[in-house]
Design brief:
The protein folds into 2 domains: 1-66, YefM-like domain (YefM-like fold); 67-103, no CATH class. It has 5 helices and 5 strands. The protein has helices spanning 16-21, 23-32, 52-65, 68-82, 91-97; strands spanning 2-3, 6-7, 12-15, 37-40, 47-49. A hairpin with a 6-residue loop joins strand 4 (37-40) and strand 5. It is elongated. The model has no long low-confidence stretch (mean pLDDT 89).
Length: 103
Amino acid sequence: MLYNDREVDVPIETTYSNLRGNLSEYLDRIVDDNEIVVVRRRNGKNVALIAEHELTSMLETAHLLSSPVNADRLVNALRDVRSGRGKRMSIDELRKEFDLGQP
């Protein structure tokens, strides 16, 4: 499966009982290897486990793309960079150009 132009493995699937017995190992794989684990539950809906930083990234991306105007700006900026029309700047240069001050 491809995600952001890179190969991504399909999620690992396991049962609730297996997860309970091997929780530490699954959590290490989720965090260390950016794995997604889908837990199949006998009497409930399945649940997916992902690393906190991945969730934060997904929520931020969804927020940035939730405005059609902002989504268009981001897509156009990405297109410009990929076509070589972008301008390389450091964080400090960006802060200065947009009068954002220091963090």
